[in-house]
Amino acid sequence: MSLERVNPADLAPPTGFSHAVVATGSRLVFLAGQTALDGSGKVVGDTLAEQFERALSNLLAALAAAGGTPERLARVTVYPVDVDAYRRHAPELGRIWRALAGRDYPAMAVIGAVRLWDEQALVELDGVAVLD
User: Fold this and answer.
1) Strand bridging mode 123-131 / 73-80
2) pTM higher than the cut 0.90
3) In sequence order, what DSSP letters do the residues of 25-68 get, joined into one string?
4) Measuring CA to CA, which residue among 43, 57, 67, 55 is closest to residue 118?
5) Percentage helix, strand, coil, to 5, in the chain?
6) Chain segment 12-41, per-residue pLDDT in tens
7) What is the CB-side half-sphere exposure of residue 107 using CA atoms within 13 A?
8) Would the pLDDT of 76 be above 90?
9) Helix pair angle (48-65, 90-101), 10° resolution
10) Residues facing 16 on adjacent strands
């Protein structure tokens, strides 16, 4: 299994993502959208950063349960309810990402959402991983 991160020199330098990821392997793991739900199903955290950390932790827990590790993520999509707040907090969110998932960035997109399933949720993450 391999993931090759491709960042063409003629594109803007990526910050916190890879422009493309070439994945080869035998198993795909499709990770459902994760918000800042705790084990009892309640949204925890009052700030975007707190909720991002919990949502990412939940995504990585689902990945681990499927036999994967963060560097196996090929694609992640982030759905904040406030894109401007996401941009303002990007440095802090990047630190959280690196602390939990490392520096092997997947292909990523940020797509603004009007609201998420749980009204208190400020952000949701989903993804695809490639395993051996």
Assistant:
1) antiparallel
2) yes
3) -SEEEEEEEE-SB-TTS-B--SSHHHHHHHHHHHHHHHHHHTT-
4) 43
5) 30, 30, 40
6) 999 999 999 998 878 999 999 999 999 999
7) 15
8) yes
9) 20
10) none
Take residue 103 and report the two structure tokens written for it. 């520096």
How many other CB atoms sit within 10 Å of the CB of residue 75?
19
User: What pLDDT does residue 25 have?
Assistant: 76
- Which residues are CB-neighbours of 93 under 8 A, at least 6 positions away? 48, 49, 52, 86
C-alpha angle with apex 107: 99 to 119, nearest 5 degrees? 70
Residues near 112 by beta carbon (within 8 Å), at least 6 away in sequence: 79, 80, 81, 82, 83
53 with 61: CB under 8 angstroms?
no
Residue with tokens 């802090």: 92
